[in-house]
Amino acid sequence: MVIRPPRNPYPSDLPENGSTRQFGGKDFTKSVFTINNEKGEKLSCLFYQPKERSGEKMPVVVYMHGNAGCKLEAEELAPFLLPQGINLFAFDFSGCGQSEGEWVTLGWKERKDLEAVLNYLNSLGTVSKIGLWGRSMGAATSIMYTAENQDKVHASVLDSGFASFIDIANHLASNQFGIPPEFVQFLMAGVSQQIAQLTGGLNIIADLNPVKYAPRCKVPALFVHGSDDDFVEMTHSEKNFEAYGGGSKDAMYCSGGHNDARPRETIEQMVGFMKKHLTA
């Protein structure tokens, strides 16, 4: 359940690679391709860019999906981001969607996937500033990556990210099964050993703690959380926000649960945040 969630199924009627869509009166081309991560696993990517561009460097938002999600989550952002002069890149984490890989680690190894994406974008010579937009697992990945790569990120939108994995385990065990926290700790110790063997060293108790990375993050950040989220409670974003090291940080809350689509006005505010920090 932790490291091998079901892969998000893809519809059979997806637009072909190189298809063109219009947003804000301009044509944008959607490219679908793969890049390799550090382990040589193929990561399935999509990239929206203007069909015609003058050659100037442009900012890009890199969207990162949640656990059991995929890069298609980013499609709902295209009508909002692209007309603002911000290109959109999304990818399936290794072990998710159409990417290779056996395991998901909720942000730990996913940092290396993100690093491969940013290295690719910077190699193009057409990208100016990069913003990270993470949902759930993607938000945790963003925090843990940014803590060690301040110079590669210019802004972050962190939607429903968790502060620590053990807090989620305690909450779910208590609310759904009535298991006391001390017994959860006992169970997690055994589970952690098994997961470490399968994933090459991940300690789910010690390593999956974005809140411990947050103080080292200095880039502007906007924290977002659904008020009806009963999976990753709002207190997780509150803890991450409080610990976050950057002076330019803000938080907003909206209606909806953990996996619900965000209201239009919320998306517009999130995009406005990105525009402020990526196009200035």
TrEMBL record:
Region Disordered: which residues? 1-25
SUPFAM superfamilies cross-referenced by the UniProt entry: alpha/beta-Hydrolases
Task: Fetch the Pfam families from UniProt.
Answer: Abhydrolase_1, PhoPQ_related
The family database entries (InterPro entries) matched by this protein are listed as:
AB_hydrolase_1, AB_hydrolase_fold, DNA-binding_regulatory, PhoPQ-act_pathogen-rel_PqaA
* Gene3D superfamilies per record: alpha/beta hydrolase (3.40.50.1820)
What residue stretches are annotated with the AB hydrolase-1 domain?
Answer: 59-179
Protein name (database record): AB hydrolase-1 domain-containing protein
